[in-house]
UniProtKB/TrEMBL annotation:
<dbReference type="GO" id="GO:0009897">
    <property type="term" value="C:external side of plasma membrane"/>
</dbReference>
<dbReference type="GO" id="GO:0031295">
    <property type="term" value="P:T cell costimulation"/>
</dbReference>
<keyword id="KW-1133">Transmembrane helix</keyword>
<dbReference type="GO" id="GO:0006955">
    <property type="term" value="P:immune response"/>
</dbReference>
<dbReference type="InterPro" id="IPR036179">
    <property type="entry name" value="Ig-like_dom_sf"/>
</dbReference>
<dbReference type="GO" id="GO:0007166">
    <property type="term" value="P:cell surface receptor signaling pathway"/>
</dbReference>
<keyword id="KW-0393">Immunoglobulin domain</keyword>
<dbReference type="GO" id="GO:0042102">
    <property type="term" value="P:positive regulation of T cell proliferation"/>
</dbReference>
<dbReference type="InterPro" id="IPR051713">
    <property type="entry name" value="T-cell_Activation_Regulation"/>
</dbReference>
<dbReference type="Pfam" id="PF07686">
    <property type="entry name" value="V-set"/>
</dbReference>
<keyword id="KW-0812">Transmembrane</keyword>
<keyword id="KW-0675">Receptor</keyword>
<dbReference type="InterPro" id="IPR013783">
    <property type="entry name" value="Ig-like_fold"/>
</dbReference>
<keyword id="KW-0732">Signal</keyword>
<keyword id="KW-1003">Cell membrane</keyword>
<dbReference type="GO" id="GO:0071222">
    <property type="term" value="P:cellular response to lipopolysaccharide"/>
</dbReference>
<feature type="domain" description="Ig-like">
    <location>
        <begin position="27"/>
        <end position="118"/>
    </location>
</feature>
Length: 118
């Protein structure tokens, strides 16, 4: 019984770390990501493996961006010094729904976003 309770508590805590964002097909959405300080590098991924965009040294880097996101991602560079690394995803497709992670170069725990598209 105590093992089951522990598993339920762990699941509850981990699910609280996911920020759910609901968006509309063909519209735009902001996926939030902030840190308590500026970062040397931030890496946005879709479903843990697909590169959405990198922000390196305060500049958006698209060198390794997956073609699914070509010309659809915007950043807010004036917000980088404040620790805000949110991105705007335009022209939403149903296939954009899923899990996004915002990984920091200097913070071990990523921000997790679940995007729902309807």
């Amino acid at each position: 019984y105590s093992v089951l309770l522990a598993l339920l508590l762990i699941n509850r805590v981990s699910s609280q770390n996911v920020h759910v964002v609901n968006a509309t097909l063909h519209k735009s959405v902001i996926l939030p990501c902030s840190a308590n300080r500026t970062q040397k590098a931030v890496f946005w991924l879709y479903n843990e493996t697909i590169k959405v965009c990198d922000i390196i040294g305060g500049v958006m880097n698209l060198d390794e961006q997956n073609e699914l996101y070509n010309n659809r991602v915007e950043t807010f560079s004036s917000e980088f010094p404040k620790g805000n690394f949110s991105i705007k995803l335009n022209q939403l497709k149903m296939s954009d729904a899923g899990n996004y992670t915002c990984n920091f170069s200097e913070i071990p725990t990523p921000k997790r976003i679940q995007l729902n598209v309807t």
